[in-house]
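Section 3.1: Structural characterization of target chains.
Under the original work plan, the team committed to producing a structural model for every single-chain target entering the pipeline before any wet-lab resources were allocated. The record below documents one such target. The sequence was received from the expression subgroup and is listed exactly as submitted; it comprises 420 residues.
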Amino acid sequence: MKKIGIIGGARIPFARSNSAYKLSSNKEMMTAAMKALVQKYNLEGKALGLASVGAVAKSSHDFSMARECLIDAGLSYDTPACDIQMACGTSLETANHVGNQIAMGQIQAGIAGGVDSSSVVPIELKQKLSNRLVQLSRARNISEKFKLLSSFKPGELIPNFPAIKEPRTGLSMGEHCELMVQEWNISREEQDQLALKSHQNTVAAYESGFYNDLVFPFANLDKDNNARPDSSLEKLGKLRAAFDKSKGTLTAGNSSPMTDGASCVLLANEEYASKNNYDIDAFLTHYQSAAVDYKNKEGLLMAPAYAIPKLLAQAGITLQDFDFYEIHEAFAGQVLCTLKALNDKSFCQQRLGLDKTLGEIDMSKLNVKGGSVAIGHPFAATGTRIIASLAKTLKEKGSGRGLVSICAAGGMGVTAIIER
């Protein structure tokens, strides 16, 4: 088995929905991020083993997005590609997909990435209208076409607008998370404190120059436009509840915003890295996913609490054996629910089948370069954003181990370990 080296990553700045990228398509954003990676590592005209890319909100005309983006980014036409979708865990899964092929010796190097726009979203036609249009295209003469056109009804012209709700419950992710924080007794103050730290760490990372070789300008934006240098507990405390108006604690301030953006990473085995004079930032060593019955038994975003124990058992380590923790902040409350569950005796024994809790983590090691509350969360782009950032963090330290944990729609969770 070959080791999966993380050479490095590139992304465009993440932008709040309907701001800098309000007219930019997934294909344009993904191409921009991939082109930055191609130029960063002098890959113009070169063929890689695979490019694996995904998006959650994807238009039908982007059925071959990965392939089109890699060509526009400057890679050789000889590079194969595929598209993957796993909700918010999409680009961590694309990295796992490329990484597995490297580990098996099927390819030497590849690109993994993800992109999403909450501004430019696919609008569906009603099925009756779609059926009529197909029939119209097959009409053999003017008479048949006129007959079909005259049968159209005004109500059929109203499109189906997208809604970010779970199909089996009808609840949004935020509404589900409200139920979780109530179950786990997570206070508003705890959530706001974590959110504030997310902003402080993001701003500090930018000021230190950490993101200079990871984030590349696009559409007149040179850094994420959601991070707030002037954020404070007082300001966060004044915001109203976003999902449960009566007793809710989730707000726009302690939840990740609707975001547009794209990110990608270059993965390779050690032989390829040596041959091309690439330094390896860190290695992707373990990966585990999990899913829960969010309709009847468990909170929608609690699957990482099931995936992490599997990951630790696979690696033969404990929850405390990490130098850094990258836990995706879909909501500050989700992070806190996961961590509280892992240190809860009843949860660990009855739901995980463990004989003891996994314990607590050192919170000073959590999302040290910022998290999704401040940076933003273009659904499919978060995984490779985290991989690139964590790998560089480990490189700067010189050694160590990092945990990646991402909750996803549909009651899923994806986790990984990155080591140097």
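The chain has two domains: 4-118+259-275, 173-212+222-256+285-419.
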